Fold this sequence. Notes:
The structure is a single chain. The chain is mainly β. Strand 27 and strand 28 (353-360) form a beta hairpin. The longest helix has 16 residues, at 555-570. It is globular, with a radius of gyration of 31 Å.
Amino acid sequence: MKLIKFSLTLVVLFALFKDVSAQAPEIALDFVRENYATEKIYIHYDKTSYVAGETIWFKAYIVSGFLPSPFSFSLNVELINDSGRIVAKKILPVINSVTSGNFDLDANAPQMNYTVRAYSRHMINFGESNFYNHIIPVFNPADKRPNLIPAKEYTCYFLPEAGNLIGGLKNTIAFKCTDQWGYPAEAEGTIVNSAGLQLATFNTSHDGMGKFDLTPVTGETYTAIASINGSATVRTILPVVIASAAMLNVKKENGRTYFYVNTETIFNEDLQPAYLMAVMENVQVFNIPLAKDKKNIKGLIPVTDIPSGILQLTLFNSKNQALCERLMFILNDDFKTLGNFTTDTASTNARAKNHYSFELQDSLDGTFSVSVTDADMELTPNNAGSIVSRFLLTNDIKGYVHNPEYYFENKEEERQNNLDLVMLTNGWRKFNWDQVINKRLPSLPKKDLNFITIKGTAFNESSKLPLGETNLSLFIKSKEAGNNMMIVPISSKGEFEVSGLLFRDTATLYFQNMQAKNKKITATQNSQSISESFALKNTGKFSLVKPLSFTVADDKLKNFYANVLDNNNKKTIVLDEVKLVSKVKNPTKLVEERYIRNGVFNSYAAKTLDFINDPTIAGNGTNILEYIKGRLSGVTVSGSGSNYTLNYRASMSMRTGMIPMNVFLDESQVSASDVANIPMSEIAMVKLYSTGFVGAESGGAGGTLAIYTKRGDDFARIPGEDNLYKIKLEGYSPIREFFSPDYAPKNPTQPAADMRTTLYWEPNLETSQSEKKLSFSFYNADRVKRIKVVLEGMTSDGKLVHIERIVK
């Protein structure tokens, strides 16, 4: 049995529910997949910990199920101190399911553990418990305050394998012992009954977890007495023993995995299991009917045919009521993408050049990020995991998982047994079966705005009446993107909406009535700004963050970082900063990167006309449609004035005859006549797509023409802008680029001291169907003797990459 790739997940809220009649679980799952897709976020940082005055560089990856998420266009990323106050915030555009940014730490930032919280608009619908949260330690060598860590308080949790402690049967009970911050604690102890008689012993086997067997008696009370770290004693009452319930166990035998169902204590029909269902990412993996006349049932779980991830096993009765469930982890290698990481040039000499490459085995579109740091200056170990452990494990279960990457380093039996302990001791985050089956599901009021959106009503300035059904010319002027122009349709009530805007900082929008350019207009705005769309009510709640504790924060380390900060403040590291790139892009490719906003326009084009880099084009032809006559193979242009039609390769429909081409102006669909009056001097680029262009209506059966108007330095001034109605609009957060110094022999500028601890950061590495290989280069700093390289990313089909190397 081979399964399809899954793409959707669910988290259920306990508010805003709407009631619908109950139904079978498999039907409920279909409804969930169609209507309730959630997202997971992973953030790759350049380092695991930081020093006040440094920059936190990061790249966020967003998936839904096992695939890059198509649902979000914006991401909110916050830096929060240990008292819950937001000290920095970035709202970033999400393109092809990824985005990147940075936080600049103040040189006087207090020494503490900070939390990075990230969420999309879509995730707000499912509650804050589903947001991304990650702790980042920040060290300040000048901070003289004592680092007071409260005395540890310990808790032990005891959990029967499938949820019920059943009298008269041998139960497997898992347990987990932690401090008040969720960190594991080593424990050993005994299980006693109400008379104090010892019945079992237990001890932790990995990261505060373990398991033992117990045959309890109905009506008896059992207590666990645990000695934590050889000192503190914790007493915990075990769950109540019930007299009748189905027992579900999972065991490995001779390299194969089996489920066991025991119904010896059941005499009530409502407690009798009718079938066992296995679900992963809201897709039914298998459904096995269970015979009523058998008290003990054994079945094989085909783990080799199931994708990697958490599998939810649930016993249901004949009324489709969930009786008990058990989580198990499937670990195959299907989540990995095959590729080769090579060290082309490596040296730990001061200011020596290093060069590395990564090549996929298959030709796939992929997005990757790489960080290169001083391995000896890591202040804390990385216990947060990687892109693999986040997307496959920790996002889907409740509670803190210590060092999750440990479970994916190899597939040895001990690690897999320890991973099963994680399944037994961490709660299921996804959903409650009763809510799903009865469709008591949340409403979804928060929708992504498709990048930046503005809505409003346009009026005639003199009459104050709403404009009738017409079109507006909209000119967008921003610092980053320069000038842009688009046509905006207006309803009969004067209402308009523009979505898909993408710029940073702020932009000025200039409006003009296309049919009456000499008549001024005004407008009212009734849409949220990008920051208002991410505003959350302050609940006053914030997860308890463990006080800062560095493993290597000795005087030597403090002195080193004091010198680093002093050098930065005095600007002694004066670098002739040159961003290193793996290859030079052709001029037309650079124009495409500047102008294309929507990823679908990156599709393969049959022809591209670059009006920026071809100076012989400007002025030729009375307009763009006249210009392309005879210049674009297969395109037929008919008509003149305000009545043009375009056809590609004589495309015909048996029902309607000639199929007109789809025309886009700055990625907004318009008619051919709408572009006829744009001067040639304002055209930046034209792209021709053959039939089947996914961005056009009806699949672009008649071919597609995409026209881009100049902006920025390509077209510096908006004609008549002083007489146009204008609106200031908030954009995405500005970010900085990471630069590496160039120590090539030809470079005469040499800094007095180079004490960088992050040697290189690049969040925008890509592979494609035509280019399987990516590479990067950087120069070492003065003191670095062990270089740590971390490469992470994902491909368009959801395969993951996590590579970590230490170069000595």
